[in-house]
Amino acid sequence: QLQLVESGGGLVQPGGSLRLSCVASGFTFDSAAIEWFRQAPGKEREGVSCISRSGGSTNYVDSVKGRFTISRDNAKNTVYLQMNSLKPEDTAVYYCAATGSSWCPLRGMYYWGKGTLVTVSS
Length: 122
Known about the structure:
By secondary structure, the protein is mostly beta strands. Helix content is 0%, strand content 47%.
């Protein structure tokens, strides 16, 4: 079974930065692409960013381009989401997910972490 655990969320002021981590286990991590999703109150869950198994290919939803950076350290079984210039609209529960696909977009059965809450507010 795939297990993913997110961390790094918290309260930050607009314009601030935060780095989220997703630690995975139960599968061959370096063979799997990982995607970050978020769900804001009253809104649908949306894909934020995805990274291929090697980290050589990444993508981002338009609303975070230039502000967020996804990366991975396969030796640590960890994917990161560096979030800069945060806006109140970024407030959401952030989840990481994997299917076993090697590239983005992901295909197959999704495995989810429990999420970490990011609140951007003054």
